[in-house]
Design goal:
The protein contains 15 helices and 14 strands. By secondary structure, it is an alpha+beta fold. The strands form 4 sheets. Strands 10-11-12-13-14 form a 5-stranded mixed beta sheet. Strands 1-8-9-7 form a 4-stranded mixed beta sheet. It has a 3-stranded antiparallel beta sheet with strand order 2-4-3. Strand 5 and strand 6 form a beta hairpin. The radius of gyration is 22 Å and the shape is globular. The termini are far apart.
Length: 405
C-alpha cells in the first residue's frame, strides 16, 4: 500500500489511538494498560473547568471508568506511569525514563528550560531536604529556602525559590514526581522511591537510540503520520544537527528496517509514513468527546489534514473574541469530527453546562441525538445530575430538543 485516501488515513489513525478496541464492560487496570499502550502519553494540564486533561483521553477511549485506576498507576507501587516532560508535561510509561535521560542532560547543560535559572547554591540543600522528608511540595519547603517575597517579573511564573530549584531538579532527573495533592500541587521525591529499581538500573541508550525508540512509539500511536507529526509526539528535533539526535535519522533507520513504510495520503503535501502494524478498519464506530489535549487533535495541522477540522483552543483568547468558547471539545462520531461543544462542570450545582454547541459542515442528521447521549454519559461519569445547554451555536437548539429540554 503506497497510497491512502484521507478516509483510510483517518481510520488507521483512530485505530492506532484505540478507538476501535473492543470495550470492556467495566474498565480495569488491563483496560488502562491497553489504552496507555495506544496513546503512549497523557498530557497533564492544570485547567479543571471540566476534568483534568490527563483523565480525559482515557475516558474518551474506555468510557466511564474509576479515576482511581490512574491514581493507582501513577502513585502506587508498582508504578506504571510517571510524569516527565515527554510531550509537554505528561504521564508516560515508567520504562521511558532511560529514554528521557538525553533530554535530562540537555536541560542540565542549559541550566533549565524556562529562561530563568534556579539558585545553584540551593540545589544540594533542597535535594537533601527531599531525600530526608519526601514526598514534599514546593510549598512545604518555601519558608526554609526562600530568600524573600515572590516577585512578579514573569507573568504566571512568580515561583518561589524552592519551586524553581525543584523544577530544575525534576527536569534533570534528580527528583521525580511521586504524585499530586488534592489541590494539584506536585509531590516531589527522589527517583529511587518513585520508580521501579529495574527502570533506574536500565542502561542508558545513546541519544540517537533513545530518539529512535520514541519515534517508533510515536509511529505506533499515530498509525500513519508525517515526519513532523512523528517528531512532535515526543517533542523531538526533526532535522539532523551536528552532535545532536534527530527524528529524521530515526525515521530513515526505521524505513530501512521495514518498520515504517513511506506512503502518500490524499490531500497531504508532505511525505507520510505508515507503521507496519497499523490496521486499516473498514468501519470506526466511535462516539467520544476529545479533550483539547487529546493526541488526536493536539497537533492542530495534523487534525486539519486528517479530519479537515480547523481547531484552536481559546482559553487565552479574550472572551469577546472567542469563536466557540472557553473550553471547547471536538466531538468524534464514527470516523469524523462532526461538532464541537463548549463545556463546563458546575460542581456546586451538579450540572454539566454547555454554553455553546456547533455542528461541522456536513454533520450527519443524528449528530445532536448522539451528542446528547454522550453528554449524559459524561455528566454521569463526572458525578453531575443534569445537562443544561445554552444558546450559542447552530447545534444548541437541536441539542436541547434531543435532551428533552
Amino acid at each position: 500500500m503506497d497510497q491512502l485516501t484521507r478516509l483510510q488515513a483517518r481510520r488507521i489513525a483512530l485505530a492506532a489511538q484505540g478507538f476501535t478496541d473492543r470495550p470492556h464492560a467495566t474498565p480495569s487496570m488491563r483496560t488502562f494498560d491497553r489504552t496507555l499502550a495506544r496513546t503512549g502519553v497523557l498530557q497533564v494540564d492544570s485547567v479543571n473547568v471540566l476534568q483534568r486533561a490527563h483523565f480525559m483521553p482515557l475516558y474518551s477511549r474506555m468510557g466511564p471508568y474509576d479515576v482511581d485506576l490512574l491514581r493507582r498507576a501513577s502513585e502506587r507501587r508498582p508504578r506504571r506511569v510517571v510524569e516527565y516532560w515527554a510531550h509537554v508535561q505528561a504521564l508516560m510509561p515508567v520504562e521511558l525514563w532511560p529514554h528521557m535521560r538525553h533530554r535530562m542532560e540537555k536541560y542540565r547543560a542549559e541550566r533549565g528550560k524556562w529562561g530563568f535559572t534556579a539558585d545553584a547554591a540551593l540545589e544540594p540543600r533542597v535535594l537533601a531536604a527531599v531525600r530526608d522528608r519526601g514526598p514534599v511540595t514546593a510549598r512545604d519547603l518555601e519558608e526554609e529556602f526562600s530568600s524573600g517575597p515572590r516577585t512578579k517579573e514573569h507573568w504566571g511564573w512568580n515561583w518561589s525559590d524552592s519551586r524553581k530549584v525543584l523544577d530544575y531538579l525534576f527536569l534533570v532527573g534528580d527528583v521525580a514526581i511521586a504524585g499530586r495533592t488534592s489541590q494539584f500541587e506536585v509531590l516531589y521525591d527522589v527517583p529511587e522511591r518513585v520508580l521501579p529499581a529495574a527502570v533506574l538500573d536500565a542502561p542508558t541508550p545513546t541519544p540517537q537510540d533513545a530518539v529512535t525508540e520514541l519515534v517508533r512509539r510515536a509511529a505506533r500511536s499515530h498509525g500513519v503520520a508525517s515526519a513532523a507529526c512523528l517528531a512532535d509526539y515526543y517533542r523531538l528535533r526533526l532535522q539532523p544537527a551536528e552532535g545532536k539526535p534527530s527524528a529524521k535519522v530515526a525515521i530513515d533507520r526505521l524505513v530501512e528496517e521495514g518498520e515504517l513504510v513511506p506512503v502518500r495520503v490524499q490531500g497531504w503535501n508532505r511525505q507520510a509514513y505508515l507503521h507496519r502494524d497499523a490496521r486499516l478498519q473498514r468501519r470506526v464506530g466511535a462516539r467520544a468527546l476529545l479533550s483539547p489535549f487529546d493526541p488526536v487533535v493536539w497537533e492542530r495541522a495534523r487534525a486539519e489534514a486528517l479530519f479537515e477540522f480547523f481547531y484552536r483552543i481559546e482559553i487565552y483568547v479574550p472572551a469577546e473574541k472567542r469563536l466557540h468558547g472557553y473550553y471547547v471539545l471536538p466531538f468524534l462520531l464514527g470516523d469524523r469530527l462532526v461538532a464541537r461543544v463548549d463545556l463546563k462542570a458546575d460542581r456546586a450545582g451538579r450540572v454539566l453546562l454547555v454554553p455553546g454547541a456547533f455542528a461541522e459542515p456536513g454533520a450527519p442528521a443524528e449528530t445532536a441525538e448522539e451528542l446528547a447521549c454522550e453528554l449524559r454519559r459524561l455528566a454521569g461519569w463526572l458525578g453531575l445530575d443534569d445537562v443544561v445547554v445554552g444558546r450559542n451555536g447552530d447545534l444548541s437548539e437541536p441539542l436541547r430538543d434531543s435532551l428533552g429540554r
